[in-house]
Amino acid sequence: MGRAFEFRKARKMKRWSAMAKTFTRIGKDIVIAVKEGGPSPESNARLRAVIQNAKAANMPKENVERAIKKASDKDTANYKEVLFEGYAPHGIAILIETATDNNNRTVANIRSYFNKCNGTMGTQGSVEFMFDHTCNFRIPAEGQDVEELELEMIDFGVEEIFADEDGILMYAPFESFGAIQKELENRGLEILSSGFERIPQVTKELNESEAADVEKLLEKIEEDDDVMNVYHTMQESAE
């Protein structure tokens, strides 16, 4: 198995439940998608992807429809996607994806978390290069031969594919998202969920005390309402 598999395994075991804001995050994703490409899932590929993720997260259909309707309202605030970078204690790089309707507030909050936990907020590009920006798709495993599917999907950018208890997961570079989404839809394959992740190219192992210092900062960042995802270079155990 490759790096994406190990990354996914560790995150799923340790961090997946850390941010109990799934519906809120999906709601923001819907607003961004609708403002970008309109309220029709048929003509808006990004919105289709978000609706798939809402379904996978068991978000009620009426919540999704309400969010789409609200996002279509001209008075609804638009969210801007902003990336923050910095270092936690012990040289751990942190990359933070946010969706905010008030950038000044978000900048001040993120900076305060770094300051309170002996971290350093970095400038644009200071740590982003340490992570591979990837996209992923999950489809049902039933009736699929993973090896055969991998050979067929390589042409569309898929670099890693593996099966787990929830289906088949494919990883590819960020820019391959559209081509893979289109091909899976053309094949009539159900997309259970899709998304983007930033996989650290190199991770650093810390002792228990050092890891606790980093976790303190990560928890503060993850609790912020504007934060969508947090990635870091600390080695995580899948135990």
Automatic annotation (TrEMBL):
Transcription in keyword set: yes
Localization terms from the record: Cytoplasm
Chief location: cytoplasm
InterPro entries assigned: Integrase-like_N, TACO1_YebC-like_2nd/3rd_dom, TACO1_YebC_N, Transcrip_reg_TACO1-like, Transcrip_reg_TACO1-like_dom3, YebC-like
One Pfam family here: Transcrip_reg
Source organism (scientific name): Flavobacterium jejuense
Keywords of this entry: Cytoplasm, DNA-binding, Transcription, Transcription regulation
Residue intervals of the TACO1/YebC-like N-terminal domain: 4-73
Residue ranges occupied by any TACO1/YebC-like second and third domain in the UniProt entry: 79-234
Presence of the UniProt keyword Transcription regulation in the record: yes
The protein's name in its UniProt record: Probable transcriptional regulatory protein FIA58_001035
GO terms assigned for molecular function: DNA binding
Family: Belongs to the TACO1 family.
